[in-house]
Amino acid sequence: MKNDIKKIMASVFMTGEKNIADDIRQGDFEKWDSLQHLNLVVALEEHYHVTFEPAEIMDMTDLGKIILYLEKKPSKQLP
Amino acid sequence: MKYLGKLTSQLNAREFREISDLFAAVFNKPVSTEQLQAKYRAPSRRDSYHGLMTDNDGRIAGALTVIPFDYSCFGKKVVFGCAVDLMVDKKYRNDITVMKKMHDAVTGLIGNGIDFLYAVPNRNSYLYFRKILGWNEIGSLNYYCLPLHASKLSPKLKGLDIISRPAVALLNGVQWPSTGAAFERPVAKTISPDFLTYRYPAGQYAAIEKSGQCARYSVVKEDALTTAYLIDVWPLTAGWLSESVRHIWREERRTIDLILYAGTGVPRVHNLFKVPARFEPRALHLIGKVLNPESINDRIYQIKNWQFNLSDLDVR
What we know:
The complex is a heterodimer of chains A (79) and B (316). The relative contact order of chain A is 0.19. Chain A has 79 residues and is mainly alpha-helical. Chain A is 53% helix and 0% strand. Chain A has a single domain (2-77), classed as Orthogonal Bundle (Non-ribosomal Peptide Synthetase Peptidyl Carrier Protein, Chain A), CATH 1.10.1200. In chain A, α1 (2-12) packs across α2. Chain B has 316 residues and is of the alpha+beta class. Chain B has 2 domains: 2-140 and 284-312, Aminopeptidase, CATH 3.40.630; 142-279. Chain B is built from 7 helices and 14 strands. Chain B has helices at residues 13-27, 33-40, 97-110, 123-132, 161-173, 193-199, 238-252; strands at residues 2-7, 49-54, 60-73, 76-88, 116-119, 136-140, 142-147, 187-189, 206-210, 213-222, 225-234, 258-263, 273-274, 285-290. In chain B, strands 1, 2, 3, 4, 5, 6, 8 and 14 form an 8-stranded mixed sheet that branches. Chain B is globular and about 60 Å long. The two termini of chain B are 34 Å apart. Chains A and B meet through α2 and α3 of A and α3 and α4 of B.
């Protein structure tokens, strides 16, 4: 899952996958502004067929948290 | 950073200047403090509501404004708030909670003053409203147009130029029989003298009036395209809509390239054509949020219940 998410992030942020570190955080990565954050959420929702709540979206500020929230989603929602 | 809610009458001259500066920076379009004061002074001289973010120097660095309007909703008189001018200084856009906190500030200030909020945001703001603020999709507005100069819409249509003007002249040269009753839906704005004074400042719009029927339009030149925006038509009957388009064509045909109307549930007329989605200038998504569930139920989220057009918005 981690590598899939990194691919999605690279696509949304229009950068190479090598620039997406395992410890990437929103505040530290210039291309990850609030609008791109929402574009990332939309891309993740479409890819994994899930829906995030506003509170989850606002808390998904690093790769680890994104994985955590995705893993919490009902398994039927994940491919 | 601080978040606070203020009524328009509570904003001082410095704050208006800061909002004006922020608007120019965010939307890349200058706006005077006088224009903002006029826009935020709602019909009947009511206040608008402002959710504001100030930076560490006390300067306004973010704003979301809600302008109140009278509507009828399934037979009830209610107040709707049109959310406009969502803007955040570039320096603070990394923080996704800013919008939520400004939204909380403005809805906290509104209290029981407004029953329902609506907006037709641009694509960027749309994501914030839907994903962070939890607003609901109501539906899309459709565009209807009469192209006088087809190639101005798309270079691909250049071949149509030779026939578009004569064809339009033919369509408008004949007064077609007007049939059908007024198109009415259960959710619609209240058109009062105060609303008309507010929405159509003297000198900025042209009026069409005949036997108690009215319409307003404005001619806007943007880049190489001159468009006559038909803002509102009431009552919305096929005959009066068609007659209003004919009137604009007669008065403006030497200077305009296009007549455009955007709205919901438009009756079919011979001189206005629905624009296919792929040719729409931009998608117009109507979204909203119930603030007072005792007055408003979920039927409000169905576009089929709305009579809505550009007059309900702060654009054009």
